[in-house]
Amino acid sequence: MLKIWTEEFLNTVSRLDPYFIALHCQEVGGKNYEESMKHVNFFVSLLMTSKELRIFNRAQVFLDEEFTSAENFTALGNFYFIHEAIKEASIWDFNEQEFLPVTEKSIYSGNIEHISTKEKSKFPQDFFPECKWSRKGFLRTRWKLNGSVFDLINIHLFHDASNFTAMQSHSSIYSIMRQKALEYTLDRFRNYEYGFAPFFLFGDFNFRTDTKAVIMKIVEGLDMVKDDVDKDNLVFQYTDNSKEVIFTLKKKEFRHQDHQNIFVSKSGSWLKDFDHELKSFEEQLFEFPIHFQPSYPFEENEHEGMNYMQTRCPAWCDRVVLSAGAKLLINDKASEVDDNDEVEYDLIGKKTCMGDHKPVYLKCDIMNNAGFTEVNVWERTLLDSKLPEDKNFVHLKETTV
Questions:
Q1: Which of 376, 377, 371 is nearest to 399 (CA)?
Q2: Any idea where the Inositol polyphosphate-related phosphatase domain is (predicted)?
Q3: Which of 67, 132, 246, 349 has CB 3.0 to 4.6 Å from 8, enough for a Cys bridge?
């Protein structure tokens, strides 16, 4: 699907005509990364040599590919492309604690632990003890573009391993672990070792709808038949008055008789009532209104790109969220108006097979020469009012908002 995926992505780039592109990928090398990591170079080449990106004369690419290092491997990939119209572009060096001008195209791949223009963290293993080994974590970069400073963070949180475990309670154990990992990440950003900057946080949050509540809604009025003869292959079936099976639930099966219609029609808007995982962070993180259908789990058959797999309840796993300071960098009217030309928040490849996750994008205009001192004060007040007296914001002489 590499060529199909890349074509859809580049078509979106052409339509939006951006000056700066931040592309965050998870599971670099695919699910079978030991065999498929060799294809990553082909993907990078497709992007770097594309006619759509020819006017982006600078780039920074970070690919965490060293899968033999279990304690560090996150399989995250951050791609940044800078248009020739951007006069000033600098990236933060986390070791030297200074901005370095970006003047060329640089690709950092394989083992990137020593690269100082990124901060990478893998979530502690005890965050999710059920998982024998995980690639989940975050990869952060800091930018100064035309006088405005902000962080861009790629994140990958834990998935739901079993439908039965997910439906046992609200919030599910998986949801609790995701919340713990996200809190861990935000705490890292409250660490003023590198100064504090507004940030855009986007990737695969693996946020799910309230599985228990969704099931209760779609099986209302049905009779349940439970087959627990083999506990390793537990099956719940829900039948109507004629004994026809309407809904089937297994560990990795979530199948409704009218599956595509019930979840695809009206963009699955009824499911939004069960999308709760970001609510506990609403004082810290902002998200533009979602008007697109759930981004996961789509069929990986290229002829069924519009259909959902019948494995999990569809959910908005892939998101773009902003800190309070980042929201201030965007035109005020764009933040307040639901439908406007300044902001687009949507899926890429709605009718095309893009894999089990369809990419989500945010198009927005960021102010020039905004600096980040006043933004920092806003962020500090909101997130951490007890700033140590001996800690200072970096580059306090930047032009303020």
A1: 371
A2: 1-376
A3: 349
Rounded to an integer, what distance in angstroms lies between the CA atom of residue 207 and that of residue 215?
A: 17
Determine the residue type at 299. Answer: E
The whole-angstrom separation of Cα 295 and Cα 26 is: 14
Edge-first strand order for the sheet with 253-256 is 223-227, 235-239, 245-250, 253-256
Helix ranges (H only) for 167-276 are 173-190, 211-218, 259-264
Query: Which tokens go with 383?
Result: 């997130």
Using one digit for the tens of pLDDT, what is the confidence trace for 341-379? 689 999 999 999 999 999 999 999 999 988 764 444 445
Domains delineated in the chain: 1-208+274-385 (3.60.10.10)
Look up residue 81 and give its amino acid: F
| CA neighbours closer than 13 Å in the CB half-sphere of residue 5 | 18
Q: Report the alpha-carbon distance of residue 352 to residue 306 in Å, rounded.
A: 7
Question: What angle do the packed helices 40-48 and 2-16 form, to 10 degrees?
Answer: 30
The per-residue pLDDT for 103 is 97
The CA R_g of the chain, rounded to the nearest whole Å, is: 22
Measured CA to CA, the distance from residue 143 to residue 89 in angstroms comes to 7
Q: Is the pTM of this model over 0.70?
A: yes
What is the rounded CA–CA span in Å between residue 318 and residue 357? 8
Beta strand segments in 132-222, E: 137-145, 148-156, 199-204
For residue 35, pLDDT over 90 is answered with no
Q: What string of H, E and C letters represents the secondary structure of 245-310? A: EEEEEECCEEEECCHHHHHHHHHHHHHHHHCCCCHHHCCCEECCCCCCCCCECECCCCCCCCCECC
Dist. CA 65–CA 68, nearest whole Å: 9
CA-wise closest residue to 329 among 98, 102, 128, 150: 150
Distance CA 282, CA 109 (A): 35
Q: Which helix (H) or strand (E) is 326 found in, with range?
A: helix 324-329
Q: Is there a contact between 248 and 237 (Cβ–Cβ < 8 Å)?
A: yes
For the record, the structure tokens of 269 come out as 């808007």
In angstroms, the CA 272 to CA 235 distance is 27
